[in-house]
């Protein structure tokens, strides 16, 4: 059975979230470091980043693989705003951008308090249009995923960009290396991964949870869960409030209280994931050189 090969059941509830007869479909292999998958339901397409190869790739069920953008400025994470436009984090230019309908690029943020950002990594958009993103130093640590440089920011922050004024505020400033982030389905909680153990095993490898106050501030930060194999990178929630995280051995699923309830084993280290497909019940997984997909029995919470 497929369950024996790719599924680890840590709690019986996980069985209700998976299709045990479904296996992993490898959509593409040939990346150097696949990252940032984002689904466009209106175009029936998946976009993702191949960071070191300086490109963004596209997959459609009808046409397969094509290059969406090259060079990509070492783009990493992506999401869509409530108008359906692509929002991207660029390591190379150390900025967050929006791709307009006509294909032109609008810079949304590249500085905070007069200094350049580190290297924006991942991004989500709240229902009020505000843009929340993380800013670790991965893109300036070497010339592999960006351009080596000294950080200009004293800390590695989580930011909120106001949709009306364009004002940028640092909502959390005590992360070691903030990475993936995701809202709970009701947007009362923001989950943020700290992946600092990627370069020092004594540093964090956990996901923190914060209460969202007045839609603008974060409070009551606490450790939500630990990743027992590898690090947390990209994360997403489903409509039932479970959190799905990347890890070295696949995708880990945690219940809303932070208990590990199951894993989907993946042959390569997973960097990021997103729900997609017409019913948002297909999990697309960016894992090192490849992008995989597997059908699940729950829909993703992210909109659009």
UniProtKB/TrEMBL annotation:
User: Ranges for the SMP-30/Gluconolactonase/LRE-like region domain?
Assistant: 33-288
UniProt cross-references to Gene3D superfamilies, sorted A to Z:
TolB, C-terminal domain (2.120.10.30)
Q: Which UniProt keywords apply?
A: Hydrolase
Q: Name one Pfam family in it.
A: SGL
PANTHER family in the cross-refs: LACTONASE DRP35, LIPOPROTEIN-RELATED
Protein name, please? Gluconolactonase
């Amino acid at each position: 059975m497929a369950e024996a090969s790719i599924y680890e059941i840590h709690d019986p509830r996980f069985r209700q979230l998976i299709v045990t007869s479904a296996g992993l479909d490898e959509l593409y292999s040939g990346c150097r470091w696949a990252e940032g998958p984002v689904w466009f339901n209106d175009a029936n397409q998946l976009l993702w980043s191949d960071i070191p190869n300086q490109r963004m790739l596209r997959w459609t069920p009808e046409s397969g693989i094509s290059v969406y953008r090259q060079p990509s400025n070492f783009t990493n994470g992506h999401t869509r705003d409530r108008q359906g436009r692509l929002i991207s984090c660029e390591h190379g230019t150390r900025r967050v951008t929006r791709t307009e309908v006509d294909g032109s690029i609008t810079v949304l943020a590249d500085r905070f308090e007069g200094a350049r950002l580190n290297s924006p990594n991942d991004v989500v958009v709240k229902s009020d249009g505000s843009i929340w993103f993380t800013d670790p130093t991965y893109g300036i640590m070497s010339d592999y995923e960006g351009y080596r440089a000294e950080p200009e920011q004293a800390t590695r922050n989580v930011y909120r960009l106001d949709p009306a004024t364009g004002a940028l505020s640092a909502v959390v400033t005590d992360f070691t290396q903030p990475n993936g982030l995701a809202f709970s389905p009701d947007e009362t909680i923001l989950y943020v991964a700290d992946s600092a153990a990627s370069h020092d095993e004594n540093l964090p490898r956990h996901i923190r949870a914060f209460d969202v106050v007045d839609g603008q501030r974060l409070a009551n930060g606490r450790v939500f869960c630990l990743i027992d194999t590898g690090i947390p990178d990209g994360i997403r929630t489903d409509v039932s409030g479970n959190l799905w995280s990347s890890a070295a051995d696949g995708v880990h699923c945690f219940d809303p209280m932070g208990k590990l309830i199951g894993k989907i084993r993946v042959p390569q280290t997973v960097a990021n994931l997103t729900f997609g497909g017409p019913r948002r019940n297909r999990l697309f997984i960016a894992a090192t050189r490849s992008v995989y997909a597997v059908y699940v029995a729950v829909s993703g919470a992210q909109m659009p």
